[in-house]
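A quick aside before the break. I want you to see a complete sequence-to-structure record at least once, exactly as it would be stored in a machine-readable document. Don't worry about memorizing anything.
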Amino acid sequence: MKIGIDLGGTKTEGILIDESGKELSRNRIKTEKNYNGTIQGIISIVNKFESDFGKTKSVGIGMPGAVSKDSALVKNANSIWLNEKPFRKDLEKKLDRKVNLENDANCFALSEAYDGAGSSEEIVFGVILGTGVGGGLVINKKIINGYNNISGEWGHNQMSIGSNDKWNRHDCYCGKKGCIETYLSGTGFSKHFYDQYNINLDAKIIQKNANEGDERSLEFIYQYLDYLARGLSQVINIVDPGVIVLGGGVSNMKQIYDNINSKLKKYVFSDTVNTKVLKNKFGDSSGVRGAASLGRPQKF
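That is the input. The structure line, written in tokens, reads:
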């Protein structure tokens, strides 16, 4: 049996799977927004599974950010209480075992590349459009981490400037201004809506209003799609994946999938754009399924 845990900014979810990949149990808790609380939450999930089912073979965790190759400390996490902390070392000490730790977007991309929406393609880029904006690159079913352990971090490239921009450039938690994440995350989506209309609405409500025929919300979504195409075009121009699989709450926006390819053609450096942009197959479960598979070479 294997445990997979998806550590998010608002929730921490765990699953227990058997050797065939069948799900045996699932547990979801609120993420405590402090370092010790986050660790204790993970320990509580592991202990619950093992008290019910017995000792497991491995624990895999998908987390925001990455572990520095130089210092072994967490870097680049938008759950900022993790940054500059020896997260792996502390978890292994508390759990008394090796922990497989990987970026959460990499876990999502791995799951969708194995047997999800990207399973037929050699190069899969997984995108998280949620509280933050993350990405993971999988080639031939293998996560590509890169020399600095930051492959896929497209959310902290700068959003390109357009001739008819209506959105402001906001400060990012990383210290830069105008990062893709500040435009395309659920938080950024709501913030830019407030900038334009002086109305404070959650991204889900804006999407709901658009689906129910609210013209202002629908117009705003089409503005968002243009920024999404600009951001994804950077990925396509560099990586040229066969498929980009979208996850996270904003990926549920139905207008994306009928319109994004025509918008990509404005920005991708090619006469044709054959890269497919697809909704994930496994929903919120993709990240946690990928985490459970860490350290396992064969398909689960």
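Two observations worth writing down. The chain has two domains: 2-107+284-292, 119-279. Residues 215-239 form the longest helix (25 residues). We'll return to this after the break.
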